Amino acid sequence: MRANEPMVPALAGELHGHAKRLRKRLRRAKKGDPEGVHDARTTVRRLRLELDVLARHASNPRTMRRLEDRLHTLDKALGDIRDEDVLREDAGAKHGLRPLVKRLERSRKKKERQARRTLSKGRALVRKVRRCEPDADVRLAPRAGKVHPVLVRHLGPEEIARGFDAVLAYETAPIDHESLHRFRGACRRLRYLLELFEEAPAHTATVISDLRGAQSQLGDLHDHHVAVSRISKWLEDGRLPRTRALEDYLVERARADKRLLREAHEQRRKILGADFRARVAAVLMGTPPARQAA
């Protein structure tokens, strides 16, 4: 979006563009393409963010929130399939794990069946998003000399600050898998906001890079934790045979899970630290961050 554009029409343009992209990606996802599932989920999340922002600035917020709720259901369905794909891809590259791969293939088909109805409704949902025509809130129209901020460069920093506040809320959260998974979601949302408003505030590149790195590392942690939990449960329930190869694979992933959990603690401290905060503040102020003393 361009800095001097009015916020609502500029954001509506982004919304419609992502909705058009989602239609193609959902088509691939419905055919069982793992990359199609991943790409569709990423686009859904960007659409959800845009609708959430629009709900604060458009004249029809209820419509925006209803669409965002329906996209959340689609996001969940795609996420369930994506977890199966990630584990299946990793296990398929190892020797001696054929029983696990077959179990994952059956599990994925089950998740596909469960998600089929939601994915089938996705096309109609995309049409509704594309036909959505948000208007600026009439309450913000200037009258009697009173004006309100309406441009991208006026409102972008406000939305970025809101996103950063959601990240800072995890400063006192426990260091466990669930909290870190949610922290990852907050980092992803802040990154998407920075990318959405990148032309409005300056100096976003390093902040986006750090958030992308945190998101990737925390994503690896989530993948290992899901793998350990899923395989352990299947072994306990007798749905997988206990083989040496499978036991070794489980130990390997459990060790990686513990290592990544320790590293995630440091990653969270970095994102919540003074240096990162200063760079976010520079983005919000539109000024270059101060140079660190040598």
TrEMBL record:
InterPro entries in the cross-refs: CHAD_dom (IPR007899), CHAD_dom_sf (IPR038186)
Coiled coil ranges: 64-121
Keyword set includes Cell inner membrane: no
Keywords: Coiled coil
Protein name in the entry: CHAD domain-containing protein
Domain of life: Bacteria
Matching SMART domains: CHAD
